[in-house]
Design brief:
Structural class of chain B: mainly beta
Largest sheet of chain B: 7 strands, mixed
Helix content of chain B: under 10%
Mean pLDDT of chain A: 94
Radius of gyration of chain A: 14 Å
Oligomer: heterodimer
Strand content of chain B: over 45%
Order of helices and strands of chain B: EEEEEEEEEEE
Strand content of chain A: over 45%
Shape of chain B: globular
Mean pLDDT of chain B: 94
Helix content of chain A: under 10%
Largest interface: A-B, 25 and 27 residues
Number of helices of chain B: 0
Shape of chain A: globular
């Protein structure tokens, strides 16, 4: 069983829709949770970064972490065609346990 | 400020040949990471340098892979001899430190080197 599970999609939504992306994980040691966005032929780019449980909002993006359920989410409001990309969840432990464990990524297509 | 830079962007080699990938981290970042994505799979950790020292090399697949970071600046990842299953995209990332500051331990990624072993 993978440490991080993520639905690979693809997910296709119309412009303006609310998008919900999710990951589940099994390792209780994970304390830092990230969402990266990756455009084709580019490297992952950090979108959201949270520590432990709770919500974090940044513009049209909201990240949620529920450690009791080992479940994290990324919501995108008012989705735009420029949001079309692969979204990767990633997580890590504390201190020197800094290696990131990734989900497989969800490919999102926002259509006009 | 320049981001993480990787060379080459794409490499095509034959099985049994040697390939060396290079990563230049963001200036001042002590931590340098190598990751790999094999087709259809998730990005997986290979190893982590703190300055010139290997902090964690638990993800290195076998002894055909050799990573170095002489002087604590740029890093190279050599694959010798390359096998078909080594094909994939190799990413390098760097971060400033490992402390509690979220901003300082963000890992910034390069665009990757796409390795094709034929």
């Amino acid at each position: 069983q993978k440490e991080v599970e993520q639905d690979p999609g693809p997910l296709s939504v119309p412009e303006g829709a609310i998008v919900s992306l999710n990951c589940t994980y099994s390792n209780s040691a994970f304390q830092y949770f990230m969402w990266y966005r990756q455009y084709s032929r580019k490297g992952p780019e950090l979108l959201m970064y949270t520590y432990s449980s709770g919500n974090k909002e940044d513009g049209r993006f909201t990240a949620q972490v529920d450690k009791s359920s080992k479940y994290i989410s990324l919501f995108i409001r008012d989705s735009q065609p420029s949001d079309s990309a692969t979204y990767l969840c990633a997580m890590r432990g504390t201190g020197t346990a800094s290696k990131l464990t990734f989900g497989t990524g969800t490919r999102l297509q926002v259509t006009l | 400020e320049a981001g993480v830079t990787q060379f080459p962007s794409h490499s095509v080699i034959e099985k049994g040949q040697t390939v060396t990938l290079r990563c230049d981290p963001i200036s001042g970042h002590d931590n340098l990471y190598w990751y790999r994505r094999v087709m259809g799979k998730e990005i997986k950790f290979l190893l982590h340098f703190v300055k010139e020292s290997k902090q964690d090399e638990s993800g290195m697949p076998n002894n055909r892979f050799l990573a170095e970071r002489t002087g604590g600046t740029y890093s190279t990842l050599k694959v010798q001899p390359a096998e078909l299953e080594d094909s994939g995209v190799y990413f390098c990332a760097s971060s400033q430190d490992l402390g509690k500051s979220l901003a300082k331990n963000i890992q910034y990624f390069g665009a990757g080197t796409r390795l094709s072993v034929l």
